[in-house]
Amino acid sequence: MSEKTLKYRVRAKSIEELMSRLYPNGKINLNKTEWNGHPPHSCIVTNMRGYGSAADEETNWTFDVICRSPDHVSYDANGVKSIGWTQHIMLKSPDGLLMNAGGAPLSNGSLPQIVTNVPYGEIDFNGLDFGTLIGTRETPGITHTTLEPMVEEIRSTSRFDSGITRSRFIAARRNRPFTKIIITSMKSGVDMDHFGNRMININTNTRHFEIILMDQLFRMLMDFIEGRISLHVKATGDAYAFVQLDQSVVDCTPNEVGMDSWFYALTQYTPVTFLDELATRLQSVYAMEVEVVDGRPGGLLLKRVEVEN
After folding, report:
1. Number of helices (H) and strands (E), helices first, in the chain?
2. Which residues pair with 234 in a beta bridge?
3. What is the pTM assigned to this prediction?
4. 244 φ, ψ (degrees, to nearest 5)
5. Phi, psi of 147 (to 5 degrees)
């Protein structure tokens, strides 16, 4: 097990009654002792939902117990990494600069300073009434594929398009500017070209360039999934989208010496494990499966999954 979600149903007269039952100390808690075969400090209770009418004396409630292995890696929407249930937080100044342990800006090339934090209390789960177990789900790990089997999978399961498209996979906003990251020696910032495309410029001398680039790509994918921008989508279906990320980063610095821009620049500026990390981040925030597509074109295959209420 890396991460497993156990869904329970229980009856209670009010949210206050249920909260006092599951959160007796007023906090989200880890299991203090072994519970149902899960070791201490591996599970939390979350995602409570109520169903019923005001006339009912008691209401049906569902909630999740999420259990993780101590080596399970996840991220929140702000990019904070957790291993198990322990947060690993990069020290930053209020304006976002990475800091060392003494509170000074981190020198370029130095490893980020990490502090750990466990933002949960602890109680003995064995004394709690969880009601009836109604389902379990394993969080899928990150898998890899290549272009041809990926396209065949999409063709066989849903309506298929190819090329740059306003994907049906995402929210249908009226304005979704096509977006790229460009790398130049000019000041970092965001601009629009004459065709209405959105260009995010990152200066090559930006402090901790690699970390800034990876965070920007994560935010771009979040904006794409939520329908705010368009990206280069090689293939899409009703429940799938292959985002060709190797087309999303262009190194324009050769233009300054009369040479052509370098496309497929993503792998030049990110570690070999970057797409796996990016896929893990997305699966931590969104109810979807994400598969790494190796080779060229390369990127991420996003797959919708059914969410149980």
Report:
1. 5, 20
2. none
3. 0.75
4. -85, 85
5. -60, -50
